[in-house]
Amino acid sequence: MVCSRLYDEVINPSKSIVDVPEWFKGSRLNYAENLLKHEENDKIALYAAREGKEEIEKVTFEELRHRVAFYAAAMRKMGVQTGDRVV
């Protein structure tokens, strides 16, 4: 796991699961960075299913990196910045 800031604690044991405890409090990580660091380009990164279609699309790590780069560039061009929420 790659992170830019280490955690202060893994979990607060005094919190119950009902309170939805915070895991790795204080850490800062980028999920995309961790998913895209895979070195084997031709391996399947994910399977994509769409509503109304029976076909399951297989996306390799190489293709996923290309798609992420495309959408990241488009969002930067639209002015999306770190901390903005994208839905």
Automatic annotation (TrEMBL):
Looking up Gene3D superfamilies in the UniProt record yields: N-terminal domain of ligase-like
State the InterPro entries in the record: ANL_N_sf (IPR042099)
> What does the record list as GO biological process?
positive regulation of insulin secretion
What SUPFAM superfamilies does the database record attribute to this sequence?
A: Acetyl-CoA synthetase-like (SSF56801)
Provide a Gene Ontology MF annotation, just one.
acetoacetate-CoA ligase activity
Name of the featured protein: Acetoacetyl-CoA synthetase
Q: Which gene encodes it?
A: LOC103067660
